[in-house]
Amino acid sequence: MATTRLPRQPPYPHIRVQLVGMDGNAFSVLGRVTSAMRAGGLGDAAISLFLREALGGSYADLLAACARWIETDGGEDEGE
Fold first, then answer.
1. What pLDDT is attached to residue 78?
2. Does 57 reside within a domain?
3. If we measure between CA atoms, which residue out of 52, 51, 56, 6 comes closest to residue 29?
4. What does the alpha-carbon distance between residue 34 and residue 30 come to, in Å, rounded to a whole number?
5. Per-residue pLDDT for 45 more than 50?
6. d(CA 50, CA 61)
7. Would residue 14 count as lying in a domain?
8. The domain containing residue 65 runs over which residues?
9. Distance between CA 63 and CA 24 in Å, rounded?
10. Does 3 fall in a domain?
11. Other CB atoms closer than 10 Å to residue 17's CB: what's the count?
12. Whole-angstrom Cα distance, residue 38 to residue 5?
C-alpha cells in the first residue's frame, strides 16, 4: 500500500527567507537565515541546533535544513 507524503510545515513558519535569486554562497545563506531567526525571536540554543544540522552535510543538506526550520521560497520539496 502506497503512502501519501503530505507537505510538512516548518516549526517556524513566521520566519521567511528568500533564497531564489539571492547570493547562493553557503555562508551567505546561513547569514540570512540566522539573522532572520534572531529577528523572529529564536534564541541561541535553537539557532545552534539549526547550525549543527545545516553544517552537517552537503550544500543540498544545508538548503534542506533551511526548508525544514523556516519558510523559504526554495524548499526541498519544491517542484515535486
1. 43
2. yes
3. 51
4. 6
5. yes
6. 12
7. no
8. 23-71
9. 10
10. no
11. 21
12. 31
Residue 31 falls inside a structural domain: yes
Site of grid cell 519558510: 71
Using only C-alpha atoms, what is the Rg of the chain? Answer: 13
Q: Which residue has the cell 513558519?
A: 13
One-letter-per-residue 3-state SS of the chain: CCCCCCCCCCCEEEEEECCCCCCCCHHHHHHHHHHHHHHCCCCHHHHHHHHHHHCCCCHHHHHHHHHHHEEECCCCCCCC
Write out pLDDT tens, residues 61-75. 999 999 999 999 854
Start-to-end Cα distance in the chain: 20
AA letter at 7: P
Q: How many domains does the chain have?
A: 1
C-alpha cell at 33: 537565515
Q: Which amino acid is at 32?
A: R
